[in-house]
Amino acid sequence: MKTNYSHSNTLENDSLSWLLLLVSLVLIPHVTRIPFWISLVAGCALLIRAMSRIDLRRVRARILLTLIVMITTAGVYFEHGTLLGLQSGVSLFVLMLSFKTLETRNLRDGMLVTCLSCFMLITHFFYTQSIPVTLYAIAVAVIIPMTLMQLNKRNAALSYAYRFRFAGTMLLQSIPLMLILFILFPRLSGPLWALPDDAGSGITGLSDSMSPGQISSLTQSDKVAFRVEFEGEPPPSSRRYWRGPVLWNFDGQTWRAHASAPITQAPSDIQSEDIIRYEVTLEPHGKQWLFALDIPDSIPSDATLNGDYQLLLNKPLEKRIKYQMVSNLDYTIGRDLNSYERHLALRLPKRGAAQARQLASEWRRNANSDPQRTIEQALEFFSKQNFFYTLTPQPLGRDPVDAFLFNTREGFCEHYASSFVVLMRAAGLPARVVTGYSGGEWNPLGNYMLIRQADAHAWAEVWLQNEGWVRVDPTAAVAPERILTGISSALRENSLLPMFVRASHAGSWLNRLNLAMDNVNFQWNAWVLSYGPDRQQALLSWLGHDAAQWQVLIVWMVTGISAFMVAYTLAFFWNNRITPTDPLVRAYERLSNKLTSVNLPRLTAEGPIEYARRIRAARPDIGDLVEPVLQHYARLRYSSYKDDKEIDLLRRRIRKLRIK
Amino acid sequence: MRQAAIRWLTRHESVATSEIILHRRRIYILPTIFGYYYAITLMVMLLAAMNYNNNMAFVVSFLLTGVGGIAMWSTHRNLLNLSISKPAALPVFAGQTAEFHIEITNPTRHARHALELVWQRITTDCISIAEHGSNQATLRVSTDRRGYLKPGRFVLSTRFPLGLFRAWSWLEFDAHIIVYPTPEVSASPPIFATSANYQGETHDPAEGCDDYAGLREYRPGDPPRHIAWKTLARTQLMSTKLFTGESADQVWLDFDAINVNDTEIRLSILCHWILEFQAADKYFGLRLPNQHIPPANGGDHTQRCLRALALFGRQTLEN
Lengths: 660, 319
Fold this sequence. Notes:
The complex is a heterodimer of chains A (660) and B (319). Chain A is an alpha+beta fold and 660 residues long. Helices cover 49% and strands 13% of the residues of chain A. Chain A has 23 helices and 17 strands. In chain A, the strands form 4 sheets. In chain A, strands 1, 3, 4, 7, 13, 16 and 17 form a 7-stranded antiparallel sheet that branches. A 5-stranded antiparallel sheet of chain A has the order 10-5-2-15-14. Chain A has a 3-stranded antiparallel sheet with strand order 6-9-8, with no helix packed on it. In chain A, α7 packs antiparallel against α19 (550-575). Chain A is elongated, with a radius of gyration of 35 Å. Chain A starts with 12 loop residues before the first helix and ends with a helix. Chain B is of the alpha+beta class and 319 residues long. Helices cover 28% and strands 29% of the residues of chain B. Chain B contains 6 helices and 17 strands. Chain B has helices spanning 2-9, 33-52, 55-77, 229-235, 263-279, 299-311; strands at residues 20-21, 28-31, 83-84, 92-93, 97-105, 112-119, 122-129, 134-142, 147-149, 153-158, 165-172, 177-180, 211-217, 239-244, 251-254, 284-288, 291-296. In chain B, the strands form 5 sheets. Chain B has a 5-stranded antiparallel sheet. Chain B has a 4-stranded antiparallel sheet with strand order 1-3-5-8, with no helix packed on it. A 3-stranded mixed sheet of chain B has the order 4-12-9. In chain B, α2 runs antiparallel to α3 and α5 (263-279) runs antiparallel to α6. The model of chain B is unreliable at 195-209 (pLDDT under 50). The chains are: A alpha+beta (660), B alpha+beta (319). Chains A and B meet through α5, α6, α7 and α19 of A and α2, α3, β6 and β7 of B.
């Protein structure tokens, strides 16, 4: 007899189905992130558990499982080269959780699998914290209490609707608690232990080198690079050069940043008054640089400005960051070029580009050593000769500069910038390549500028006596539209661009929808994801604490939780109070309560009809409303046969009754 | 130690004579082992969220923390304000399981699920109760000896909904049943030799059914065919016709006629024969050293005899 109810029960089939559903739901988003064979093995394990009743108490099955665990662990090691770090950790966790379901037999195993699934649920956020993933995780978070209910309901028969309502209510009720903890739980500014090396993997963006084809491949990504909110009017597209890495060293194929870019001047030799103030929200790119309009006139905290006028963060950017900037669009920089910098800015590889060197020295002679004339001739060369601006240039071979300038004449901005700087250096003018982004799309919904990876760009800077470093964009000579309106209008092969960057989509509903979605993401980042220690400090100073410390946060947090608990407990006992079993009595009490609120309480020994009469006498205006309801009640009260539908009807009438 | 702790905790809860209403102060709650699993999982999640400074990981960790907290209230609610009736059970023979039926009423607007009745750490029943409904649960108590049986303190507990907490209430009612001796077979009935030992006994005249011997007041259990219907119609009083049975039918089962020294075995043998005679619808009386029950038949008579056996030598309820 007793075994029916004892607790060491094996799981029912229903409970197993719920567990497998939960495990599948927490694993599915990882399929795109882990090696395919791991997804396959995990899927097979779940399928086998779902379809068969294998008994792992049998020794042979246990040995087999141990073997499989060892082999797959080795597989993970070979796949990722390590067993540590985020990627291999997630791979291993996926495997172990799916294997655990194979030996899940009793309640204890079921509870354990549920707990592991809870942890698995948050691992998705280490890849992305986007809105869809968050919504998905919250949907799965409803399944977790439902699974626990299934495991612990014993013999109770519960409908799915009841379970869903119960679990949903629990989740809704825990939202205030979650908000209190989210806002007030003391946040640390750094990690507790070193982040695994691959924590920020899979990020696209500029690199500190440039070789042909590198930027044009970036152009095929519509990922957001950063977003900018301007104070006042944004500058026109032709003046929106977002400065990134500056490249000095050329080996004939690839441009690289100079290893030790000298940190010399503060932005004090910037002279003019054309000031732009704005705020940048930069997506993580795994590198140290920050982007700012040419030329930055302020330095955000945690950052430095190097001699190339490039902003550098103290450490690689693994998280989205927001910083205030001031830029000066009309500037003079680097008026004094020291000999070392001059040497760097004139250096060319020993071999290659013979034709280019020849052409450059020709220009130099024509220009009578007037640098302006030399530059003009070069730009003329690009615009007069039959140069093509294209994403898919022909391969250039071993001498890319000459091949590009004199044979193919098809190239993307990096080709133009690179060959232009080579020509300038050959003509004796110090020059360098600057990479970054140019342009950007205005999002009218959120009033910010959206700069995508597709807006990546490369241009040149030439050093002139008395003027310093002057920006020259050879791409503008070939495809002025690129600079004036953006990349989509400059390219003929629109189809190679990411969908939302193409010219044909400008102004279409699809593009508007995309901008709207990007705005939602932007607000999400700005208000939710960026919440951290800084905002907590701001909150505390708003609450009136000067030197905010984590102890203060703890005090506020405990206060908040206590307040919630008191409120919840009061509501709880009210909600669970004893009410009359007879639904008719409950309905009548409700009606009397409503009437009591207008000062017409029911007297102790008063029947409904008499009560109605008294109400009519006291308040003729509501008599017509109340009397039929009271008569309805009396009819039900004193009839021997009580119809549930009739009682329901009365309840609804009472609920709808509005008495003032 | 444990018992002392329970006694101290329940010192304000008197043994109930009628129903018990589970006021919040009667309900105790502690996390289950799975509650601790869950808490550890949440802590690990929180550490991961802190290390990666990952806001959505914080959100989900805190949300599930909230769910765990709400689960505590929900488990508490599953017992709150239930009304538990005094357990009632039919007598059993020693060695059988006594089934105490307990009516549990839910006077609130929330259904209750997976309520477990636990007696001496064994879950004996598990029920659900609809909102504003009631349900019967059975407390199964094993018996090993005759006499009075009090189920003593038992537990109504629940882990619903999430199994992270266990709420319970100790219940003790002033309820008891009588446990009859275990029937034990013997070769022949221990019959009292009528002719030899009849003098000097102060018992009621033997009641049989052969020759009419007069009327007496009706007692519950008297066979309907012996009711004096004519007298009833005339006097409005229920009376039973008495008959003087023949001596062959007037069997007395005798404690002293059993050739065994052990009292318990004697009672068991008597118990067996009472059941046998009852099954055969015979008239029989019972002679115990301290009590004589005159011959009769029917359910009530049998119960009276069995009760006498059960309580033989047992003085009070406390025994």
